[in-house]
TrEMBL record:
Protein name, per record: Exosortase A
The Methanolan biosynthesis EpsI domain, residue ranges: 323-507
Cited InterPro entries: EpsH-like (IPR013426), Exo/Archaeosortase_dom (IPR026392), Exosortase (IPR019127), Exosortase-1 (IPR017540), Methanolan_biosynth_EpsI (IPR014263)
Organism whose genome encodes this protein: Aurantiacibacter xanthus
Main location: membrane
Membrane-crossing segments per the record: 26-45, 85-102, 132-150, 192-213, 225-244, 264-285, 313-335
Biological process terms in GO annotation: proteolysis
Length: 518
């Protein structure tokens, strides 16, 4: 009988290239991440849509390849470490899932997206252990830049830009007056619009500045200084940009200045600012180009990490814990979102003593929008002395994404209209005061309140906290928004709103009675 040698099976080249101690942990991590991306796909699809279609977040498209590059830099050192699954990492994962759950059930998209992203580094900590996680600390932290955050800063940045602009305008000898975000000059009225707030450049510069601070500096103080410059310089530069547009308009006309702003300031100016910032920081770089990305000897010899590794656990057990937490969080969210408070099919504005309902007549049409509300009311009341107020009410059976009181676009300033926010107004009876203006000619004062359960106030943060508590406990309570507004921005408008509130009594009880809760 003739015997032939039979070759032993060989592993795929990709498997052979992975250090033996890494093969099972990486498989566990891949399975866990695949499950998390599938179960929480809604958040990732929403975020990807922002990255692609919203110019404020286009820079995030570069974050995934940057993360891959950061890990690739560390591969030689990582290959010498031994991953160990670590069950306390499940606590970090549970925390990330709690953030997602609170955001998901309350409609706070930033929280739900932050939680979804934070699940990935938390899972890496649980399945690879504290030693490897410490070696990957910066890439794991940098992954949080996948969250599209920045629109919340627009109102604040508008006001800062307006203040810088008017200061530079006066310093350059141009007479100008400012009211809110409007700057009146001899050649015309300028508005520091949302698109001029500089948020796009700021959030992109912070992401880039964080990367440069880590890659080019060793000193903590130098890193902090560069990060501070990455925040301050873009804000100041945006104010200079707005002033430059006004300055050029004084001599070349508004149309020329607007075109110059979009071409030069919109593209070249901020590229120059970015180059100047990096160039100024270049001379202070204190990290060598060939310096290893991580201190392997320090990580291997760290006693505090060795103490933490005493809580190691089998990889398959920690992986099962990841699956159990993910399924539990999604099941809880589904059950919480199913809880809604009953609302009557038909509601009407009630009669108010000393006031009568009259047809709405406005110098410039104003009506708040609340596309997510389940019930809406709008009407005008006139007192016996001729005072007039416009009243808007919106009721929500539940709070969730697309159906949340106080969300962007659901307030006193109607979106996609000529109405602009000028600034805050003194509160009346605990409401949030806003000074609005349309086409530079029609001022309006608006006061906003929210009602949830027995609470009435104007804090969106408190409203979110109450909503999260109730939905976590499966408690059904409706939420209401009330906006009382009057034309004019002075004392007469304030007096009209105050007198109307005196007539209706406690505003929270009044909102409840309209839907039969009192």
């Amino acid at each position: 009988m003739r015997l032939e040698a039979i070759s032993s099976p060989t592993r795929a080249p990709l498997t052979e290239s992975i250090a033996p101690q890494w093969r099972a942990p990486l498989l566990h991590l891949a399975l866990a991440w695949a499950a998390l991306l599938a179960l929480f796909a809604g958040e990732w699809v929403t975020m990807a849509g922002h990255w692609w279609s919203n110019s404020t977040y286009n820079h995030i498209l570069f974050v995934p390849p940057i993360l891959a590059w950061l890990v690739w830099q560390r591969l030689p050192e990582l290959a010498r470490l031994t991953p160990r699954a670590w069950w306390p990492g499940l606590l970090a994962l549970a925390g990330a899932m709690l953030v997602w759950l609170l955001g998901n059930i309350s409609g706070l998209a930033t929280a739900s997206q932050l939680g979804a992203v934070a699940m990935l580094p938390a899972t890496a900590l649980a399945l690879l252990g504290p030693r490897v996680a410490y070696a990957l600390l910066f890439p794991l932290f940098y992954s949080l830049f996948l969250v599209p955050f920045g629109d919340e800063l627009v109102p604040v940045l508008q006001m800062i830009t307006a203040d810088i602009t008017i200061a530079l305008t006066h310093a350059s000898g141009i007479p100008a007056e400012i009211e809110g975000v409007f700057i009146d000059t001899p050649v015309g009225l300028f508005e520091v619009a949302e698109a001029c707030s500089g948020v796009k450049f700021l959030v992109a510069m912070v992401a880039l500045g964080t990367l440069i601070a880590n890659q080019c500096y060793r000193s903590v103080w130098r890193r902090m200084a560069f990060l501070a410059a990455s925040v301050i310089v873009p804000i100041i530069a945006n104010g200079v940009r707005a002033w430059g547009t006004i300055y050029i308009a004084q001599f070349q006309g508004i149309e020329f200045a607007a075109g110059f702003d979009h071409i030069f300031y919109g593209w070249i100016f901020f590229a120059v600012v970015m180059a100047v910032l990096i160039g100024a920081g270049w001379r202070f770089f204190d990290r060598r180009v060939d310096e290893p990305a991580i201190d392997l000897a320090g990580i291997e010899g760290a006693r505090w990490i060795a103490r933490l590794e005493r809580f190691a656990a089998p990889g398959w057990a920690v992986l099962a814990g990841v699956f159990a937490l993910a399924l539990g969080a999604t099941a809880w969210a589904g059950a919480a979102r199913a809880v809604e408070a009953p609302l009557p099919q038909a509601i009407v504005l009630p009669q108010v003593a000393g006031w009568e309902q009259v047809p709405t007549v406005q110098a410039w049409s104003w009506r708040p929008d609340s596309p997510g509300a389940d019930r809406r009311l709008f009407g005008t009341y006139r007192s016996a002395t001729g005072q007039r107020v416009d009243v808007f009410l919106a009721y929500y059976a539940a709070q969730e994404e697309g159906r949340e009181a106080g969300a962007y676009g659901e307030g006193a300033q109607p979106l996609d209209t000529e109405w602009r926010w000028l600034g805050e107004a003194p509160a009346i009876d605990g409401g949030k005061g806003d000074r609005l203006q349309a086409v530079g000619l029609h001022p309006r004062l608006a006061m906003t309140w929210y009602r949830h359960g027995d609470w009435t106030g104007s804090s969106r943060l408190e409203l979110k906290a109450l909503t999260m508590r109730d939905r976590l406990l499966f408690t059904a309570r409706p939420t209401a928004t009330m906006i009382v507004s009057a034309e004019g921005g002075g004392e007469e408008a304030q007096a009209a709103i105050a007198d109307f509130l005196d007539a209706i009594g406690p505003s929270g009880k009044w909102m409840d009675r309209i839907v039969g809760l009192d």
